Amino acid sequence: MLADRKFKAIKIGLMRSKEFGLLRGVAMHGKTYLTTDVPTACTNGRDCWFNPDFLFKQIKNGDKGAALVLVHEWLHKAGMHMVTYRRLAEQDAMRTNMATDFWIHDRIEAADPQHILTEMPVGDDGKAIGLYDPKYHGWTVKRIFQDLEQEQQGGSGGEGDAGFDHHDWEGAKDMDAKEKEKLAEDIKQAIRQGLHADAKAGQGGLRDALGLAELVTPKVSWRALLRMFMNSTCRKKEQSTWRRPNRRFLHNDIIMPTLQGNSINEAVITRDTSGSMWCGNRLRDATSEIIGIAKAISIDKIHFIDWDGQVENHEIYSSDSLVDAPAMRSATGGGGTDPTCVSDYLKEKGIKPDCIIMLTDGEIHNWGNWTAPILWAITNDTKITAPVGKTIQID
Prior knowledge:
Number of helices: 15
Structural class: alpha/beta
Oligomer: single chain
Number of strands: 12
Strand content: 15-25%
Strand order of the largest sheet: 9-8-7-10-11-12
Order of helices and strands: HHEEEHHHHHHEHHHHEEEHEEHHEEE
């Protein structure tokens, strides 16, 4: 009974706090069990299990360590980790566990940097139990997963400490499609209620250091944004349609078809190959997105350019031929970052494309001046918006 009262006191304290109060709806959703049936703590994305012996005996830094465990499980629920990353877990459960835990502890650290309410649990040996690395600040779970994968392949990382809790992937798998859909909506609604109550109290979003608002903000596919950019700037008119009459003739009571098209005449697609792009998976990600662009949009003529401080390589393809082009398997560059070399090069060669797509990490000082519609596709963990043209964030 003592453990039960202590658990409730910590839970209520967190739910009333300015640091973690926005999670109150998430904390109340589903069932919570205080039981020794689990070794430490566990969630299936809806319900939570906590071992009182782990919370109040094995953890040696008192209520703060126990409080972090509670917030940890709530954030698994808020992030919908057990459902969203189940297929990633089928690929590598250990690394997925680690990636979600790094993501969680980054947010807890941001919400409670002075460790007023929470602190990483400490074991008998005096060492922290759990995974935290400041380099993952602001990263997505998938990017952390990829980074851990790369570290292991490079021999600099290992499985090591996989965190302190159990992730019930099988329990989440047992939910049918309707249950998962309802769970997702319930969790989002719980987060929205917390955000709404906070705003109503006059606090605005100031307390959302956990980044909960982004979890309920509708996300638009970068490919959908790319299509919108293409449609609004440079679609080639190649086929008549009667579905939309030509307005130029309507005043004379003449109905004529308009032209529509599904392809683009000429585009420039570039890949930033400067030194910063060789960090992590940026260059690989940019290359895969270029292939995605070629598959998503039919372009008759593509000027494919590698650049850093200067244009390193220029080849011409169509959408179909670019996908399997040798240039996709090798990159040229590694110097400084100056996109003006591309605009100067296009002017020098007399290339006048319908649009320009720049794949880059956005670590740029001089964005240049452009004579054609330009879209910056940014592959960076930090949100960067170009001061010229349009920007989409690729994740």
